[in-house]
């Protein structure tokens, strides 16, 4: 996709922004404006760093707050990522997806401007700098689960053409001032060709959240996002990381810890200790069961994101009953079950980015991951 051709649809021939009724309102920012907004990309304004660059908060002259992603390496590959991210975001508006305010492309600089999310990422509340503040009560968690499911379901079922996120994870769920979920980071999104399962040689995603078929074979489909979302639900309910370090060499995927407990219906024990016992047991049970059913290794067994919303909201008692009785949760079948995977051990090309380990390319296991499912 040529960079130049991307923006002609958002701007008229004389360069002014065209605003069709109901179309996304985004604009081109000048580099000068973004330097001024972020205090010259001051270290104090830095919100964090991701795979493609640093994110800074800033203030525009109208007083509104923005988050600016400044891409770090400029290459043809990065040009493509930038083009994809901007093109995808510019077309999308949903209450649970991070809103694009605009972009800047001057000289070698490529920057993307988003709405600023004052409550930062879900990761920061589960494991990071806000974890001790106890701001994520049960009601908020349930709301975040349903909201982020609705955002992803929009990408899968309503965006045209449909979009696979490819990097669903807690650090890509941002929280607005009301703690409503905004799914972010469509840098890896690829437009799905009509009816096709996209096979890529370039696996991107984060260790612990990657569906096995995507990690091993590069087969991306909506159900890969469902898998990652299942891991996110387990993380949200239990406060555990997707992969727990048991010792220097042994790591345990969250599913291997959660499935035996779920089979024994020991849901209360699974709740995040940060909740201090203050949660709705039936909802916790639902979140865990839905998380596990999403994170099955066989893609065809996973629900769609629309089913996930339905289950989380308890819209159909029948579906919920079916879920509870799924063979995955039957102790008598446990021994012959290999439904949940410990195949997240493809650690070739892993880069440690302090909070998450990012996969750069799939490969065979070099690390021990314990497993009991
Ligand atoms: N719009 C925003 N408002 C507030 N904070 C943000 C916003 N966008 C990103 N951040 C913060 O900046 C950090 C870096 O974000 P970024 O999307 O670049 O990386 P990431 O998702 O953490 O990692 P990666 O890109 O490698 O997947 C995040 O941890 C997030 O907390």
**CATH class designation of the largest domain:** Mainly Alpha
Shape: globular
Question: How is the biggest beta sheet arranged?
Answer: 6 strands, mixed
Neighbour order of strands in the largest sheet: 1-5-6-4-3-2
Q: Please indicate the count of domains.
A: 2
- Separation of the first and last Cα atoms: 43 Å
Describe this structure in words.
The protein is α+β, with helices and mostly antiparallel strands. The protein folds into two domains: 3-115, Phosphorylase Kinase, domain 1 (2-Layer Sandwich); 122-371, Transferase(Phosphotransferase) domain 1 (Transferase(Phosphotransferase), domain 1), CATH 1.10.510.10. It contains eleven helices and 18 strands. It has helices at 3-6, 31-37, 76-90, 122-126, 138-157, 212-217, 222-238, 254-263, 281-294, 305-312, 317-324; strands at residues 27-28, 46-50, 53-59, 65-71, 100-106, 109-115, 163-164, 173-175, 181-183, 190-191, 198-199, 205-206, 219-220, 243-245, 250-253, 350-352, 357-359, 368-369. The strands form six sheets. A six-stranded mixed beta sheet has the order 1-5-6-4-3-2, with helices on both faces. The protein has a three-stranded antiparallel beta sheet with strand order 12-17-16, with no helix packed on it. It has a three-stranded mixed beta sheet with strand order 14-15-18. A hairpin with a 4-residue loop joins strand 14 and strand 15 (250-253). Mean pLDDT is 80; it is low at 1-19, 341-356 and 358-373. The structure holds adenosine-5'-triphosphate. Adenosine-5'-triphosphate (ATP) is lined by residues 47-52, 55, 67, 69, 98, 114-117, 120-121, 167, 171-172, 174, 184-185, 353, 358.
């Amino acid at each position: 996709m040529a960079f130049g051709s991307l923006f002609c649809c958002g701007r008229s021939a004389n360069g002014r922004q065209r605003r069709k009724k109901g179309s996304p309102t985004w604009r081109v920012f000048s580099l000068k404006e973004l330097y001024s907004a972020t205090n010259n990309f001051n270290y104090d304004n830095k919100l964090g760093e991701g795979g493609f660059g640093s994110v800074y908060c800033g203030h525009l002259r109208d007083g509104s707050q923005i988050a600016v992603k400044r891409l770090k390496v400029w290459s043809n590959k990065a040009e493509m990522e930038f083009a994809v991210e901007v093109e995808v975001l510019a077309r999308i508006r949903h209450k649970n997806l991070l809103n694009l305010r605009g972009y800047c492309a001057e000289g070698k600089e490529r920057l993307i401007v988003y709405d600023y999310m004052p409550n930062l990422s879900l990761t920061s509340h589960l494991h990071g700098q806000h974890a001790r503040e106890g701001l994520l009560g049960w009601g908020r968690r349930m709301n975040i689960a349903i909201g982020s499911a609705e955002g992803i379901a929009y990408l899968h079922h309503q965006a045209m053409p449909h979009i696979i996120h490819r990097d669903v994870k807690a650090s890509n769920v941002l929280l607005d001032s009301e703690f409503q979920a905004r799914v972010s980071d469509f840098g890896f999104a690829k437009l799905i060709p009509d009816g096709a399962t996209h096979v890529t040689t370039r696996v991107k995603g984060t260790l612990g959240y990657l569906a096995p078929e995507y990690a091993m074979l590069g087969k991306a489909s909506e159900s890969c996002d469902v898998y990652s979302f299942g891991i996110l639900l387990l993380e949200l309910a239990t406060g555990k990381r997707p992969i727990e370090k048991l010792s220097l060499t042994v790591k345990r995927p969250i599913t291997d810890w959660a499935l035996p407990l779920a089979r024994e219906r020991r849901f209360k024990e699974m709740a995040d200790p940060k909740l201090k016992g203050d949660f709705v047991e039936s909802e916790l049970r639902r979140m865990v069961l839905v998380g596990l059913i999403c994170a099955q290794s066989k893609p065809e067994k996973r629900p769609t994101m629309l089913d996930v919303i339905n289950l989380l909201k308890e819209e159909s008692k029948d579906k919920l009953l079916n879920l509870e009785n799924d063979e995955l949760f039957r102790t008598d079948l446990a021994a012959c079950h290999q439904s949940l995977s410990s195949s997240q051990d493809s650690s070739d090309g892993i880069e440690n980015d302090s909070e998450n380990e990012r996969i750069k390319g799939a490969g065979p296991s070099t690390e021990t991951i314990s497993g009991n499912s």
